[in-house]
Amino acid sequence: MTLKKVNPDLQKERATCTFNVEELTNILDTGAEITAIRRAEEERVLSVKEIRDEIPEEYLSHKEKYENAIRKAVILHKVMNTNANDGMSSLRSSIGAAIFKDGSPFALHNGMFMPTLLGQADEEQKKYWYTRAKNMEFIGTYAQTELGHGTFIRGLETQATYDEKTEEFILHSPTLTAYKWWPGGLGHTTNYCIVMAQLKIKGKSYGMQPFIVQIRDEETHIPLPGIKVGEIGAKLGFNTVNNGYLGFDNVRIPRRNMLMKNCQVLKDGTFKSAPNSKLAYGTMVMVRVAIVYSSADYLARATTIAVRYSAVRHQSQIKVNEPEPQILDFVTQQHKLFIAIATSHAYFYSAYWLQDLYTNYLKEMERGNYDRLPELHALACVLKVISSSDCTALIEKCRLSCGGHGFMLSSNLPHIYGLCTASCTYEGENTVLLLQTARSLVKAWNESSKGGTLRPTMAYLADRSPAAEWDSSLDGIIKAFQKVSVGKLSTSVSSLAQYTASGLAPEDAWNKTSVQLIAAAEAYGRTVVLSIFKNEVEKYAKTASKEVKSVLFDLVELYFTHMALEKMGDLLLFTKLSQKDVSGLQRKYENMLEKIRPNAVGLVDAFDYRDEVLNSTLGAYDGMAYERLMAEAAKSPLNTEPVNDTFHKYLKPLMKGKL
Question: Active-site residue numbers?
Fold first, then answer.
């Protein structure tokens, strides 16, 4: 739908913006050149008419949605591989969101299968498998989670038993719960799969290892003998990703189908272990970096929709006999939405920071230095957790802020919520990941107690001094959150010691203390995000205009103040925050909402999402929400005829008493 008219309320909002929107967009893209490349690529792809849906996805059957997604995925692949840019790309590319409202069936091929080949295949294997995968000579996926086990990797049941006589691995699913469950594309799309399985040689177990397995014939696509594969069914989100299940009945694969960059099995069955047992964490860390970014991206899209709609929606009266104001003028609405803008910025910068850390770690790893892996793993775990949980909660607030219209699928807010909330469980369930971070923190605490040196993001744990007087500055709030982190971790370690001293086994003591431990892990994550947000904005502010610098620090101030109020109980417990200080924070927060109000629409415009990406009747750039809602309603198949057949079949007999 193309509307030339722009809602006057949005025109007015854009006129009040105090900063250059394009400049902020360039910062979010990490450079003007990247912005230009991203836009050119989006225009090139989205101008292909065949790639757009004529009938909204929600009116298709489950089967039709999948078939349509495959059609579009093939067109997208062709378009993306012609006239590609010179190796430069933007993490903020949103082309996929514009084409697949509910995810691409090729997502795991690109996002997990090929990165795993790069990270865990040896050079000879890469030359064969990665080259073919990149050329789409076959389509792959990554199968780790099973029906009965997910985050607990050691509990996975799929077996890969080595037969030295034939130099083959025998893959087998000994129980129903051993069936692989969830891999994207597995249902009916892929014909190869990287399978994580328990390696067994001569009766001895050697832990989880990755194996590449052909599951369907390359010509007919029929499942191979011994392969039991299908789709798992409809879900809250990602319904076109084609998630599937996979079982094995003594399926044989060649020895060289085990990915052998890190661990190897020789012809005679000799097992050679990796130089570091945690090398396989690399791919998981990479995916969690992507989740931090995608969480911020989902939230930014939802916020754009909600803020634009709030600018054009008029309702109620603040003062009698005055016109109904824009609902964006209500402070309660600003309270719901402005923190969402700030939070999306906080996690965008956190994702970029974590990606740089990961890139540097890969360089160190190539030199044989694995020292930073534990810290990187702890960071990736906790940042994945708090970004996914925070952004999911705020997306729901955005939906609620749009009233009944936010409940419409055409608003796209329910879809965005479904996609983001899934990230709270995939690639590591959030509570389990917090406990993994907690293990690193407890270890760091004990090392610090013995005078050991801590990694940069945990260095503050060595400062056990009492909290200073309350300081509402940015640095003061960071230090206050560090005191909360130290206090919660100290309490957790003390509880662990007391439970152990009482006679509990270490494992039982850990379980008993686990609620405290996840709180300590979250507190650590909060200190990290606060520090990153401030430091990254300071970095960009060095070259930014005065106006953009000002609005960026407004977002930082709002985020810090909001977090202090949100975690007031913790701060009262572990710092010298007083009732007077809380009143001051509340007044500051309200003032920050008022300060940001003129720039609200400009801030979401700076996210630079095309209408095709937002895919929303409420959030289009022109602000013509009501016209778009009515136009979308007209597309319902039920509106193609004035009288539905059910009237004559059922309703009329009922009303005439002739059932």
Answer: 427
In order, the DSSP letters of 194-258 are EEEEEEEETTEEEEEEEEEEE-B-TTT-PBPTTEEEEE----SS-TTS--EEEEESSEEEEGGGB
Q: Is the pLDDT of residue 161 over 80?
A: yes
Range of the domain at 548: 470-605
Residues 117 and 246 in one domain: yes
Exposed (0-12), middle (13-18) or buried (19+): which is 483, by Cβ within 10 Å? buried
Question: Long-range contact list for 636-643, CB < 8 A, 24+ apart?
Answer: 636/59, 637/59
140-143 and 192-201 strand pairing: parallel
Supply the mean pLDDT for the chain: 93
Side chain identity at residue 442, one-letter code:
V
Contact 37, 88 (CB under 8 A): yes
The CATH number that applies at residue 151 is: 2.40.110.10
pLDDT value of residue 281? 63
Are both 61 and 151 inside the same structural domain?
no
Cβ atoms < 10 Å from Cβ of 223: 16
532 and 552, same domain (yes or no): yes
Q: Are residues 158 and 269 in the same domain?
A: yes
What is the band of 561 on the pLDDT scale with cuts at 50, 70, 90? very high
Boundary-marking domain end, from 589, 605, 621: 605
Using CB atoms within 10 Å of the CB of residue 242, give its burial: 0 to 12 exposed, 13 to 18 middle, 19+ buried.
buried
Query: How many CA atoms does the CB half-sphere of 425 hold within 13 Å?
Result: 10
Is there a single domain that holds both residue 595 and residue 509?
yes
Assess whether 59 and 116 both reside in one domain: no
* 471-490: average pLDDT: 97
Please check whether residues 39 and 154 belong to one and the same domain.
no
Regarding whether 543 and 475 lie in a shared domain, the answer is: yes
Q: Is 105 helix (H, G, I), strand (E, B) or coil?
A: coil
Please tell me the total count of domains within the chain: 3
**Is the confidence at residue 597, as pLDDT, over 80?**
yes
Separation CA 106–CA 174 (nearest Å): 29
Convert the pLDDT of each residue in 381-397 to its tens digit.
Answer: 999 999 999 999 999 99
Q: What is the C-alpha to C-alpha distance for residues 507 and 511, in angstroms, rounded to an integer?
A: 6
Residue whose C-alpha is closest to residue 398's, from 297, 310, 320, 527: 310
Length of the chain: 659
Which of 101, 135, 153 is the endpoint of a domain? Answer: 101
Contact assessment for residue 635 and residue 55, using Cβ atoms and an 8 Å cutoff? yes
